[in-house]
Amino acid sequence: MAQQHPRRRKARRRGAAAKANADLMTHIASLGLKTVTTYRSWCHEHGLNGALNKTWQERRQERTVARQDEAEAEDHKALMAHIAELGLNTETAYRAWCGKHGLSDALNKSAQQRRKELDLAVRLQSDAVLAGMKAHKRRPRETIQRIYRGEIDAGELRGDSLQKIHEAFATLGKDRRARKALLELLLHAQQHADLFGVKPAISRLGPQDGNTFIQGIGAMAAHHRDWMRPVDAWRPDSHNSRRQFGALARHILARYHVPAFMDAAWFLGCNDVARQQQAWFKHIAAGQNIRKADIPVQLTKKMAHLFLQAPDDCTVEEALRWGQILGLGGEERLVRAVNGTRLGASFEREDFWRTVIHFLVNHPMLDMDQVGPIVDYIYNQKYVPQEIVGPGGNVTQGPPAQPNFAVKGRSMDKLVRQMEAWHRQLARDTRLPHRQWAPSGYDPFDHTEKSGSDGTVRWRIQELLSTKELAAEGRAMHHCVGSYSSNCQRGNTSIWSMQVTDAESERPYRVMTIAVNNRGRSISQARGKYNALPSGKTPNGKQRALERSYRGYLKDSKRILRLWREQEGLTMSSYT
User: Fold this and answer.
1) pLDDT at 2
2) Does 316 reside within a domain?
3) Number of C-alpha atoms within 13 angstroms, CB side, residue 145?
4) Range of the domain at 80
């Protein structure tokens, strides 16, 4: 037993040492340190004893010092954040700023003092911005030249027109000659014309990128190698900005007459379509026949002649259809009906669609309100893959319903019956797979107004964001809005339901379905029940199915639609 006592005493000594080491490391961790070496250094930095064995009073004092360090660090962090909010970088700069503005240069200040300093900085910055804006407006030519030289950042410019000018120079990149040409155009336009507005230059195109006169001038500057006359020789002969721009474009680029609708080529932004149409503008301006240009449609001599006579409010694509259809013997009302469909903006699969246009021209007695539904039906049958719902709700993609569809040898009456049957089936089809898509970004509409002596009605326009919502709209309105689901999923189109709630009813009443071309920010379709127009006219003789109260709401829908268009900055297709 005597031999075991030393072992017990040794074990106790090891346990005491381990406990002491554990207490030491716990204390070191409470100071925010990790090792004994860093602890000794910290003690020397703070004028404390660097020994490891200390009393609890000494360690408490060290923890107090550590808390003071932490508080000082937080105060310094808050000070540097305050200095950064003032737009400064260092304490020295902060002291100098305070002295310059008659403030105390002390670093430790109350929250109220720092709040006053921030308010002063905001006022000073606002005054500087206002002074800069006044200087830019007083000396616009000098400002344009400084933008050209790269001496002004976009963030320094507050005027919308100056921002557009900065963007126009940025679009041209490092092309020195193009930038110099743009500078020449802008300086001359600033002195002699009114082309610095930022509203849409072509109302039909809406507020899309590129659709301002400044951006149109930028597009012309990119073609400086083809200029035919000096810019400074031009003077406007009209106070209308659209006419001024057209005259300027023809002065520098045209030797021969160019129709006014071709001006739209300069307001399409920076893309392949814009560059292609600008090439057509120069082609015609040089006296060349449009038939020899790289156009997507085959035109006869007669068609080419009629193309040049298209109305000024057409887009270039619509003007091509104008020449094509009139050249085939069609009427203007057919042109407008066709241009209200996908064929008015696209020439994809033109070989097939040319046969459809021939077919429509050969049936002049067709109600023009049927043209849009017929084109939708043919497109769906020939090109849209079918979604097949299998067991368990699995959806697979099948071929189009009629991939070999052709109009040759068809009866128009039979085609209309097939189209109407498809529309009815689509409106009541509950087997469509459920799909959802993201909102378009436009805001809904909510408007309450008086009705009669003491009643009120509430109008709402809400976006439909799933195939189920489209199907419900189609069933209630007896039309084929469900055919837009693919375009909605791709983000090309958004569908909206206009509904009204009066004082007597609690549930909203559907009045009109609206289709919006998201890219062009324009309303492409606006139809009521049975595809009725606000006038109450329908393409399939359903006037009797429209109740008297509904016809009244339908008549008011045109006014409500205009209010929503103004709210969202949307345009109305001239063919809608």
Assistant:
1) 47
2) no
3) 6
4) 21-85
